[in-house]
């Protein structure tokens, strides 16, 4: 506990300049500028597309989203989990396919991807629940109540790089108090150390059955040590966290970046030294703004790339780079200056960075775009 408090205090004491002061000007040529494409677009009357997820496997790029009813745009009005697939590194994408649909009277989500490099199997986790017109946060704080009405988590898998998918498999992972826990973003497979090969998802739970999100909300992990045959509950992060993303650092530690549910304006972080079993060290990093939104994180060689909105509000999507395992973030660039919200990030083996994010002119929920650019452009002065 002393180690957690000391590090949290040292990080919190570091007051960073604004995102715009950190963003470095560059003069890219037209050939090196980011390329943008819209992968999902709201039709204005029937559906919107929310909560994007991204996974890169070799030269294959998978992007997923939840198709929601336009009238409500509730977290529990999703009518399908949809996916688009690229086999050329994100240059072009195949038509949209539906990979999960709910039974009448229920809603569905399907957006947390993970790849097992040993078996070649790709998993996509999600959840099913009743149409209640409530938020995802409510579902976390009232997990037992909603489970009694038919909520469960599930996964589907693909053995051909996302071309075809299995039927849904119901799988209930529970925390110490018996509540169901489900992934919230793409997962990782540990690449080094004693836990090499382990599959780890960032997830979200609620400790104690007491309403009130921030005080009792924790991110956590869901772990598999047998290539996805079985899954179990892992470790809890600090209180007041939600919607996390996870990455492996150079020495095998795991680092989770989390939405700050206390709304203190900066993101929370937690470190694990045992493959996601526990998170004994955590704090708040004021260099990573958090206007109440999800953010993505990925590793490329000696770099950790973090993408999220910097504000004010849900605007200005920024990608930041760390070269010292998330201690400092010396490089940052604005990828989208307008309305933006949830985002995910991945990197191809050739150094092509892919950022998938919600965006629009009037609101952040008009379309889901993909930005594609090189690491060299990101690092350019």
For the largest sheet, list the strands in their spatial order. 1-25-24-23-22-21-20
Oligomer: single chain
Give me the number of helical elements: 6
| Secondary structural class | mainly beta
Number of domains: 1
Measured as a percent range, the helix fraction is: under 10%
> How many E strands?
25
Here the CATH topology equals Neuraminidase
Radius of gyration: 19 Å
State the shape: globular
Query: What's the story with the biggest beta sheet?
Result: 7 strands, antiparallel
Percent in strands: over 45%
Distance between the termini: 40 Å
Low-confidence stretches: 1-26
Can you identify the CATH class? Mainly Beta
Per CATH, which architecture?
Answer: 6 Propeller
Any overview of this molecule?
The chain is 9% helix and 49% strand. The longest helix is centred in the N-terminal third of the chain and has 11 residues, at 2-12. The termini are far apart. By secondary structure, the chain is mostly beta strands. The protein has a single domain, classed as Neuraminidase. It has a seven-stranded antiparallel β-sheet. Strands 10, 11, 12, 13, 14 and 15 form a six-stranded antiparallel β-sheet that branches. It contains six helices and 25 strands. The protein has helices spanning 2-12, 19-22, 136-141, 143-147, 213-216, 375-379, and strands spanning 35-41, 47-57, 60-69, 78-86, 97-100, 106-115, 122-130, 152-158, 169-170, 173-174, 180-183, 188-189, 199-206, 217-224, 232-239, 241-248, 254-260, 265-272, 281-290, 296-300, 303-309, 315-322, 331-347, 352-360, 367-374. The model is unreliable at 1-26 (pLDDT under 50).
């Amino acid at each position: 506990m002393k180690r957690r408090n000391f590090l949290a205090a040292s990080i919190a004491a570091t007051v960073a300049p604004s995102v715009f002061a950190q963003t470095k000007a560059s003069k890219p040529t037209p050939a090196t500028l980011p390329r943008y494409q819209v992968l999902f677009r709201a039709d204005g009357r029937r559906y919107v597309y929310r909560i994007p997820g991204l996974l890169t496997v070799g030269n294959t790029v998978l992007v997923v989203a939840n198709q929601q009813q336009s009238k409500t745009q509730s977290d529990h009005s999703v009518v399908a989990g949809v996916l688009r697939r690229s086999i050329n590194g994100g240059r072009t994408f195949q038509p949209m396919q539906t990979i999960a649909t709910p039974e009448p009277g229920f809603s569905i989500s399907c957006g947390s991807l993970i790849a097992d490099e040993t078996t070649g199997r790709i998993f996509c986790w999600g959840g099913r629940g009743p149409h209640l017109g409530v938020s995802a946060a409510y579902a976390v704080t009232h997990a037992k109540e909603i489970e009694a009405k038919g909520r469960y988590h599930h996964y589907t898998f693909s053995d051909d790089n996302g071309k075809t998918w299995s039927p849904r498999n119901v799988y209930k992972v529970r925390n110490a108090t018996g509540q169901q826990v489900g992934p919230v973003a793409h997962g990782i497979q540990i690449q080094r150390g004693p836990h090499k090969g382990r599959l780890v998802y960032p997830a979200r739970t609620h400790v104690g059955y007491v309403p009130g999100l921030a005080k009792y909300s924790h991110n956590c992990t869901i772990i598999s040590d047998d290539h996805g045959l079985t899954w179990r509950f892992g470790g809890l992060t600090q209180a007041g966290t939600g919607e996390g993303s996870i990455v492996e650092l150079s020495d095998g530690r795991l680092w989770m970046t989390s939405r700050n549910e206390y709304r203190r304006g900066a993101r929370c972080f937690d470190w694990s030294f045992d493959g996601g079993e526990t998170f004994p060290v955590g704090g708040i990093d004021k260099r990573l703004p958090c206007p109440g939104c999800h953010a993505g994180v990925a590793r490329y060689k000696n770099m950790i790339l973090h993408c999220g909105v910097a504000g004010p509000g849900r605007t200005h999507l920024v990608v930041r780079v760390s070269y010292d395992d998330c201690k400092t973030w010396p490089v940052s660039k604005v990828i989208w200056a307008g309305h933006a919200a949830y985002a995910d990030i991945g990197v191809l083996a050739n150094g092509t960075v892919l950022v998938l994010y919600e965006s629009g002119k009037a609101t952040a929920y008009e379309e889901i775009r993909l930005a594609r650019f090189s690491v060299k452009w990101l690092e350019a002065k």
